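# step 3/5: fold
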Amino acid sequence: MATLDGDETLVVPAGVQHGNEFVLKGRGVPSLNQGGRARNQVRGDLRVQIAVFVPKKLNTRERELLEELAKLRGESFSAQESRVKSKLKSAFS
């Protein structure tokens, strides 16, 4: 990811959810209260918030892969189930 000092690697552990935040200590914007001194500037923290993109439509191959993943995990994934949930969600929104 891009930072003020160039690219930085952020390792995102498994199970991280949308909205989770990571803090890179001392990698943020320099403090304005340093009297203009460039040397030894105190810097703030860089906060990174995770944004998970959920596709609205899946092509055939994507659906097959999700079904395969669900099967491996012992879960169910069906297009019918997704449509019913979507309709119920719309009805109560």
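# step 4/5: annotate
The mean pLDDT is 83.
# step 5/5: archive (pending)
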